[in-house]
Amino acid sequence: MIERLRALSFRCFEAVDIAPSAGVNVITGDNASGKTSLLEAIYFLGRGQSFRQSGPRPAIRRGAAAFTISADLAVDEGRAHRVGVQRDRQRIEFRIDGESGASRLDLVNLLPLQLVDPNVHRLLEQGPRYRRHFMDWGVFHVEHAFFPAWRRYRRALKQRNRALKSRRPKTDVIAWDAELVRSGEIVDASRRAYIEYLERKLPAQAKQLLGDEAVHLDYAPGWSGDDGFGSALVSHLEQDRRAGFTQQGPHRADLRVSVASASARDWVSRGQQKILTTVLLLVQARILYERRGLQPILLIDDMAAELGRHYREALAEEIVAAGGQCFLTFLEPALVPEALADARMFHVEHGGIAQVSRRPTC
Ligand SMILES: Nc1ncnc2c1ncn2[C@@H]1O[C@H](COP(=O)(O)OP(=O)(O)OP(=O)(O)O)[C@@H](O)[C@H]1O
Ligand SMILES: [Mg+2]
After folding, report:
1. 29: Cβ below 6 Å to ligand 1?
2. Residue of the nearest CA to atom 17 in ligand 1?
3. Same-domain pairing of 145 and 264
4. Same-domain pairing of 203 and 249
5. Which domain holds residue 331?
């Protein structure tokens, strides 16, 4: 958990210095006051990058030369760490416990976090890329064999695609197949193991929010046929050569979500999609806790968006029950659910953030 968060010259903030609670933290503030920016600062510490499309440079406060963000982290059994990010116009630097030269991966391992932004329904509505990203976040943290294999897979895939694109002879293309199959099968097995676990954990939590409709996850490995990845590569070789890239493989995997028997995209309303995706993230958080003893930090931007009172309350109860540290933003104090009455409250305005002792009234 984050015990203390500091930032300088980050977006609209001149300076941030807060001591969040270990549980729920609520941030309220008007439009353009800096709510999303605060979550973005935390996200930077855990992922080494922004979730906004524009990249890190525009995040330096206008007129400043650099931004810095740092946090004191309490990890398990009394261990503490300090993580920091500094970005000037040329470069970005990550620090862990005062040592520079840390990598993005070090941050990801030290501060696992999940973001639910108002576009979360993309997970269900848009292409498989978002769902692969969702699935692989969990697989990365829980299945140790996954990441090294995924790295090797991507390297081999790049080389194979290069050979296909430049119309090299067949032998140059298939020279990569053995490595692709070896690493790809580990990627696939890791994902399958994780999804199986996710599917076992999901029903109870989804039931609270979606009622009796059963939620199903349907994993598609990214290749066709029942004879394994190696065979799919062989049988698609000519098609790949015509297309100029590799069309089969774990890089095309998908995780379809269905409610009752219909695809979640078609069946559930926008609000329900938000609930469903948030539930999926909460279940992932629980799995990470059970399997690795890590409790990811949950960031939910504009939690009330698209949700009426009933869903807001129900979701808030689930979040409190999940028990980890979270940061939730709201446009108006009146939108903060009753279930969050014990949360620590912060208010953002005029380029600063301050803890408020109780909900400010509108
Ligand atoms: N580099 C920067 N320097 C100064 N201000 C910036 C910078 N980047 C963004 N801003 C400003 O920061 C303000 C806060 O933006 P942010 O998206 O955090 O607001 P918000 O509270 O999430 O608003 P909303 O409720 O509308 O989502 C905006 O007015 C934006 O123009
Ligand atoms: Mg915002």
Report:
1. yes
2. 36
3. yes
4. yes
5. 1-112+294-362
Strand 2-10 vs strand 80-88: parallel, antiparallel, or unpaired? unpaired
Among 10, 14, 28, 33, name the best residue to mutate to test ligand 1's pocket (greatest count of ligand atoms within 8 A of Cβ): 33
Is 27 in the same domain as 128? no
The amino acid present at 285, given as its one-letter code, is A
CATH number at 254 reads: 1.20.1050.90
Residue 102, domain member (yes or no): yes
- Ligand 2 centroid from CA 3, angstroms: 23
Q: Is 25 buried (19+), middle (13-18) or exposed (0-12) by CB count in 10 A? A: buried
Residue nearest to atom 26 of ligand 1 (CA): 31
Query: What would the DSSP string read from start to end of 142-185?
Result: H-TTHHHHHHHHHHHHHHHHHHHHTT--HHHHHTTHHHHHHHHH
SS3 for 211?
coil
- pLDDT reported for residue 322: 86
Whether 31 maps to a domain, the answer reads yes
260 and 179 share a domain? yes
For the chain, the domain total comes to 2
Counting atoms of ligand 1 from 1, which one is nearest the CA of 61? Answer: 3
Pairing status of strand 24-28 against strand 326-330? parallel
CATH number at residue 352: 3.40.50.300
Whose CA is closest to 117, among 5, 267, 277? 277
Q: Please write the tens of the pLDDT for every residue from 90-108.
A: 999 999 999 999 999 999 9
How much is the pLDDT for 266?
Answer: 67
What's the CA-to-centroid distance between 331 and ligand 1, angstroms?
13
Same domain (yes/no): 21, 142: no
39 within domain boundaries: yes
Q: What is the pLDDT averaged over residues 245-274?
A: 82
Kindly compute the dihedral angle of the four CA atoms of residues 226, 229, 230, 231, in this order, to the nearest 10 degrees: 30
- Determine if ligand 1 sits within 6 Å of the CB of residue 87: no
Average pLDDT over residues 115-142: 85
Span from the CA of 212 to the centroid of ligand 2 (angstroms):
33
Average pLDDT of the chain? 90
Domain presence at residue 155: yes
